[in-house]
Amino acid sequence: MDPTLGDMALDTLAGVLRAMAEFALEQEEVDIATFRAQAEGWASHIAVATPAPGVDPEEAKARKGRREWESIRRFVRDYCRSSASKATRVTTDLRQVIWVFIKNLSQAFAHDQDVAERVHGQLGRLEGMVESSSLEELKREVQGAVVMLRQVLEERQHRQHKQMETLGAQVKFLGHELESARRESETDPLTRIANRKAFDEYLAGSVEIHKAFAQSMCLLLVDVDHFKSVNDSYGHLSGDSVLCAVADSLVKVFLRKNDFVARIGGDEFAVVLRDTKMADARILCDKILARIRGLLLPMQSGETITVSVTIGLGAIHADDDGKAWMDRADRALYAAKEAGRDRMQSEE
User: CA 185, CA 93: separation in Å to the nearest integer?
Assistant: First the structure.
């Protein structure tokens, strides 16, 4: 054999081993760093007859430079078998992951009828390729499935966003309707001010605020004088117009946010004044008395009449509940009526 050809063959085989080391694949039991060191050792053994990997130097001297061809073949064969086994296991694991992927996605979209057909069609194609197709085809199909799923999820997100907007609008509308119904249930239908139910709640709340903060408060009980005679003389429609005029006057005098005006009976009104001292409440009572005296009210008969009111004013006490406070204002109202009506009496 031509010595030159022999040297070329050895150099070529050594180059092959070094290429295997450079582009080594993962193996089942040997890490890549260890394999590269072994492959480089075998390449050196072939090229310049260095001791074979794992062979004692003294034993290598006894071999007088002979190459370990059988060991080299075994090394290459073990590498090919181990790397192929690793690739097969990775491929099997990949297919198993895709199976799980298919199963979970099928379940996730099982009840979403608008996208189920698209998703199941795509997953059906992917399922058919898991066992039989090449990895490249499988990769392309997985990429297609990912793109399709991204589109489906974006569409679902957009649809759910729209549904949430619609639901939010409906909830807001219902909230307005409920609030409107609540206000309506607490409003006197004739005068459009608060009714007895709303008054009782506001009175109870005011008592609790006074207990917590010792805030000065006053309660007015207002009766329309001789209201029965108005109804008897001019009719109930005329009587209703008198009640509306009195309610309007009360609202226009008691303007603060915490001034609470209510109709609590036929011709009976009440006003709760939070954060108000008796001296200030008396001034406001004089204003409402004067304002109502000045009203000229047309009746159905064509006549014009005047009306007046009587007011009982009571201050809140530290140990009061709503009834005790009401009783105090009511005693003041009775005293004002006994004194001749069209006036205010107070009880501190």
Answer: 68
pTM over 0.85: no
For residue 306, give the amino acid letter: T
Nearby residues of 224 by Cβ (< 8 Å), 6 or more positions away = 230, 242, 243, 246, 267, 307, 308, 309
194-208 per-position pLDDT tens digit: 999 999 999 999 999
Residue in this structure with the two tokens 């698209």, named with its chain if needed: 118
Contact 263, 200 (CB under 8 A): no
- Order of strands across the sheet that contains 259-263: 259-263, 268-274, 217-224, 309-315, 344-347
Spatial distance between the Cα atoms of 204 and 315, rounded to a whole number of angstroms: 15
**Per CATH, the architecture of 196-347 is what?**
2-Layer Sandwich (3.30)
How many degrees, rounded to 5, is the angle at CA 189 between CA 324 and CA 219? 20
Rounded to whole angstroms, the Cα distance separating 12 from 82 reads 23
- Residue ranges covered by each domain of the chain: 3-108, 119-185, 196-347
Angstrom CA distances, 156 to 112, 162, 166, 267, 318, stand at: 9, 10, 15, 61, 61
Write the pLDDT tens digit of every residue in 290-303.
Answer: 999 999 999 988 89
Tokens matching residue 5? 């050809």
